Amino acid sequence: MTTPTPLPASAEKARVVEAMFDRIAPRYDLMNHLMTGGLDLLWRRRAVRELRLPRGATVADLACGPGEFCRELHRQGYRTIGVDSSAGMLARARGADELVRADILDLPFAPASVDGVTSGFALRNVVDIPRCAAEMARVIRPGGRLAVIDLAEPRPATRWLQSTWVEQVVPRLGALLADAEAYRYLPASTAYLPDGPALVGIFREAGFADTRRILLGFGAVQLLVGTRVPAAGQDPGSRAGLEARGR
């Protein structure tokens, strides 16, 4: 029987996670590609397509890491702001028009100041998921879009295969190529995520009323997409760029 990996309590989680990502920054993209067989690139491409924003729209990629999402956003015609709390990750980030070091629970952006938000595999690493969703809603303009990727709870048909991969193969790859402790934590950190319907409910409550959940990678990965609902008195078409969002 596999011994469960201890997870940090909320009081120390932010500090532990930031230090961990500083350590694994040099091999982070390589490990992602190896762990997913390169499918992570396709998942990000799908997420960016789901934004459905006009070319030139500004998209903030939260927990941007070395910038894989930012590069895909740039390829699809968006202006990008990469945000991460890890100095090690930002030092290696490429592809963003602007880089900002910040906690994604406390973004240094004005309300309704970006057209969209993306994030890849970050929800399970934040201390407070509802607060994270609310902060995304705060900075996205009315009518703007959200596309967030993270792991999903295993389906019954693939539970054994997925569990074997993330609990045994991934930690061994991490120990060989990157950081053994980090790659024991990362698979185990899915325990922080609520189930799919509850996660959708969190984002709908935050202000993305049409949030839907798309399963990718044979159900191992979930993509949450949604549109920022205007608050009372706000005009969803007040920004010229968003008026063209039906490209």
Question: Describe it for me?
Answer:
The chain has helices at 10-24, 28-36, 39-49, 68-75, 87-92, 129-139, 159-177, 180-188, 196-206, 240-243; strands at 58-62, 79-84, 98-101, 114-120, 140-151, 212-216, 221-227. A seven-stranded mixed beta sheet has the order 3-2-1-4-5-7-6, with helices on both faces. With 247 residues, the protein is α/β, with parallel strands linked by helices. It has one domain: Vaccinia Virus protein VP39 (Rossmann fold).
Write the layout of secondary structure elements.
Blueprint: H1 10-24, H2 28-36, H3 39-49, E1 58-62, H4 68-75, E2 79-84, H5 87-92, E3 98-101, E4 114-120, H6 129-139, E5 140-151, H7 159-177, H8 180-188, H9 196-206, E6 212-216, E7 221-227, H10 240-243
Parallel strand pairs: 1-2, 1-4, 2-3, 4-5
Antiparallel strand pairs: 5-7, 6-7
Helix pairs in contact: 3-4, 6-9, 7-8
Quick overview of this protein structure:
With 247 residues, this protein is an alpha/beta fold. It contains ten helices and seven strands. The chain is globular and about 50 Å long.
